[in-house]
């Protein structure tokens, strides 16, 4: 069962709809027991880094997520991916979950529109358990103004938007997508399906 | 590189698609959900529902249509028509819309743009502008399906909408709309040049070449069309194949 972590930041329904469509058993949860019971976790998120971390702390789930992330696969999506890193720099410098080394900074793409919104093609940096089936040139749906800055060893796929944009990041059992697999059509659903099939 | 988007638009009244549809193999011809699924399969990058329902009961029906669509279509969904308040945004976003487009209510009360942008994020606020040429490089915003001239300058209004927090502009040329003579390139350029948010071109496309033309001659980010797709004259797939041939960045399935 996939636990969708509900901490007040973000639209959980699209993700739930996608998992239901794929017939992947899932449950929206905001309790420590719920997170422990699940065999996989998804951390969604829409909004700003500081708000998300504040809400996560208020929900009392921060430490439990860190504990569970070494035991079972965890997938952060969009802002949920960003807060997997050590630091955020949206409005102010704020500590993240620190599950993947690196920080989150404003996209530096002179002359291009911010947010980076729409379908961008990806390139492969490193293969990981979730990248099987992703082909160079596939397009995923992004909506974001900040990007992860991390060592290449943690980047599985990336896009170029006047800047290097990590699209899929990973470290051990922790994964994150800057793009929205639940809004990326068929290939996005396939990624969620692979996550659902992980041990 | 970001792909140029192709967006089919469905007009919905009381939960039914208004215009006739020539899709092959869908169960209920007038069901917006079935149509949205068909467009998704053709490779639509986004789907727009324009709710032209007048009654209160119809609004609830629309929410149900959005809910059912969101369970079956996994590309961004934009809903517009009759949006009056930030509360309307909330209801549609909760039902599963990714973006909400607001038109005349924003003209009456521009604060709705900033209120919705602060509450739900700029990315989900689309400001729809219906405009007509009224002079040399001068365009006015019209309402009520192009019948009433508000006297508001469309270029100024687009800039104001961006300043207030709009994440995107959906620009319909009331001169080009229905003519099938191509998008209004002059108007699009006039607006694209003054805003730094994505602009969706709407109104006037009647053949394949109009899509490639709008992306070659303007910096529009997306092209929206209704009847050309409704009546099965073209599929989204055909448009994308043509764009690919002409080296325009496009998402192909």
Q: How are the SSEs ordered, and which strands pair?
A:
The complex is a heterodimer of chains A (199) and B (253).
Chain A: E1 2-5, H1 13-21, E2 26-29, H2 32-37, E3 40-43, H3 49-58, H4 62-68, E4 74-77, H5 79-82, E5 85-88, E6 94-95, E7 100-106, E8 116-121, E9 123-124, E10 139-144, E11 146-149, E12 155-160, E13 164-171, E14 174-177, H6 185-196
Parallel strand pairs in A: 1-2, 1-3, 3-4, 4-14, 5-7
Antiparallel strand pairs in A: 5-6, 7-11, 8-10, 9-12, 12-13, 13-14
Chain B: E1 5-13, E2 16-17, H1 32-42, E3 47-51, H2 56-70, E4 77-80, H3 86-95, E5 99-102, H4 104-108, H5 111-120, E6 125-135, E7 138-143, E8 148-153, H6 154-164, E9 168-173, H7 185-192, E10 199-202, H8 208-217, E11 222-225, H9 227-230, H10 236-245
Parallel strand pairs in B: 1-3, 1-11, 3-4, 4-5, 5-6, 6-9, 9-10, 10-11
Antiparallel strand pairs in B: 1-2, 6-7, 7-8
Top keywords for this entry?
heterodimer; A: 199 residues; alpha/beta; Rossmann fold; 4-stranded mixed β-sheet; 33% strand; B: 253 residues; TIM Barrel; 11 strands; globular
Describe this structure in words.
Chain A is α/β, with parallel strands linked by helices. Chain A has one domain: Class I glutamine amidotransferase (GATase) domain (Rossmann fold, 3-Layer(aba) Sandwich), CATH 3.40.50. Helix content of chain A is 24%, strand content 33%. Chain A contains six helices and 14 strands. In chain A, strand 5 and strand 6 form a beta hairpin. The longest helix of chain A is centred in the last third of the chain and has 12 residues, at 185-196. The radius of gyration of chain A is 15 Å and the shape is globular. The model of chain A has no long low-confidence stretch (mean pLDDT 95). Chain B is α/β, with parallel strands linked by helices and 253 residues long. Chain B has one domain: Aldolase class I (TIM Barrel). Chain B is built from ten helices and eleven strands. Chain B has helices spanning 32-42, 56-70, 86-95, 104-108, 111-120, 154-164, 185-192, 208-217, 227-230, 236-245; strands at 5-13, 16-17, 47-51, 77-80, 99-102, 125-135, 138-143, 148-153, 168-173, 199-202, 222-225. Chain B has an eight-stranded parallel β-barrel, surrounded by eight helices. The longest helix of chain B is centred in the first third of the chain and has 15 residues, at 56-70.
């Amino acid at each position: 069962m996939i636990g969708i972590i509900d901490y007040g930041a973000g639209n959980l329904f699209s993700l739930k709809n996608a998992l239901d469509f794929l017939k992947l058993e899932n449950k929206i949860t905001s309790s420590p027991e719920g997170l422990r019971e699940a065999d996989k976790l998804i951390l969604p998120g829409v909004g700003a880094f500081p708000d998300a971390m504040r809400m996560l702390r208020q929900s009392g789930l921060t430490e439990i997520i860190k504990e569970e992330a070494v035991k079972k696969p965890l997938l952060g999506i969009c802002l949920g991916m960003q807060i997997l890193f050590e630091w955020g720099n949206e409005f102010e410098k704020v500590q993240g979950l620190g599950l993947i080394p690196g920080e989150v900074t404003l996209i530096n793409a002179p002359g291009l529109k911010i947010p980076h919104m729409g379908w961008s093609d990806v390139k492969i940096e490193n293969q990981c358990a979730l990248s099987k089936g992703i082909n160079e040139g596939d397009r995923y749906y992004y909506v974001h103004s900040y990007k992860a800055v991390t060592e290449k060893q943690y980047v599985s796929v990336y896009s170029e938007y006047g800047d290097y944009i990590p699209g899929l990041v990973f470290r051990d059992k922790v994964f994150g997508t800057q793009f929205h697999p639940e809004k990326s059509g068929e290939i996005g659903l396939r990624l969620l399906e692979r996550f659902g099939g992980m041990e | 590189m970001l792909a140029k988007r192709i967006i089919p638009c469905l007009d919905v009244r009381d939960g039914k698609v208004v215009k006739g549809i020539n899709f092959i193999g869908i169960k209920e011809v007038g069901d917006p959900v079935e149509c949205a699924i068909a467009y998704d399969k053709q490779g639509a990058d986004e789907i727009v529902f324009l709710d032209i329902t007048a009654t209160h009961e119809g609004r609830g029906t629309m929410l149900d249509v959005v809910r059912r669509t969101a369970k079956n279509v996994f590309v961004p969904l934009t809903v517009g028509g009759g949006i009056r308040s930030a509360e309307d945004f909330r209801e549609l976003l909760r039902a599963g819309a990714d973006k909400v487009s607001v038109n005349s209510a924003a003209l009456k009360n521009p604060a709705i743009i900033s209120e919705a942008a602060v509450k739900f994020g700029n990315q989900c606020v689309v400001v729809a502008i219906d405009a007509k040429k009224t002079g040399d490089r001068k365009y006015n915003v019209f309402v009520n399906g192009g019948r009433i001239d508000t006297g508001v300058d469309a270029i100024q209004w687009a800039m104001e909408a961006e300043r207030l927090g709009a994440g995107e502009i959906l620009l319909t040329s009331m001169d080009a709309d229905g003519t099938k003579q191509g998008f209004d390139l002059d108007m699009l350029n006039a607006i694209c040049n003054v805003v730094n948010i994505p602009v969706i071109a709407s109104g006037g496309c009647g053949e394949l070449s109009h899509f490639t033309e709008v992306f070659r001659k303007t910096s529009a980010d997306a092209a929206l069309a209704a009847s050309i797709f409704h009546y099965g004259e073209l599929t989204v797939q055909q448009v994308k194949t043509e764009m690919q041939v002409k080296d325009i960045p496009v998402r192909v399935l």
